[in-house]
Amino acid sequence: MARKLERRTLSKSISITNQLTGEAFGELINITTEGLMIISDEDIETGSIFQLVLNLAEPIDDEMSIELGADCLWCRKVENLTRFWSGFQIIDASEKAVQQIEALIDSFGE
């Protein structure tokens, strides 16, 4: 499946939490309103669906986080490291979350 939007790398570090467990999930590498790529310490099973929280360094629309549902499309081990790259399709995001992602890209996109 071809990506419609170019993912944007951000100049700010954004940690991601698993909303259901409250545990650290990974770090955001790049994002669009349709998907994101993260780096994590764990191998993530392809086809797994997660409720994720993007923990913002600065508020966007008076919020310090963005909540969304995402489906893991792929996961690969980072060469020479014990970490993993994973690509996700955003499958559940409120209108506000989409606006926050757009503002995040506008503010910190490279």
Plain-language structure description:
There is one protein chain. With 110 residues, the chain is mainly beta. It has one domain: predicted glycosyltransferase like domains (Thrombin, subunit H, Beta Barrel), CATH 2.40.10. Helices cover 13% and strands 51% of the residues. The chain is built from 1 helix and 7 strands. It has one helix at residues 95-108, and strands spanning 8-9, 15-18, 24-31, 35-40, 49-60, 63-77, 84-92. It has a 6-stranded antiparallel β-barrel. A hairpin with a 5-residue loop joins strand 2 (15-18) and strand 3. The longest helix is centred in the C-terminal third of the chain and has 14 residues, at 95-108. The mean pLDDT is 90.
What is the compact description of this entry?
13% of the residues lie in helices and 51% in strands. It has 110 residues and is mainly beta. A hairpin with a 3-residue loop joins strand 3 (24-31) and strand 4 (35-40).
CATH topology label: Thrombin, subunit H
Distance between the termini: 25 Å
Q: Label the CATH architecture.
A: Beta Barrel
Given this structure, which CATH class is correct?
Mainly Beta
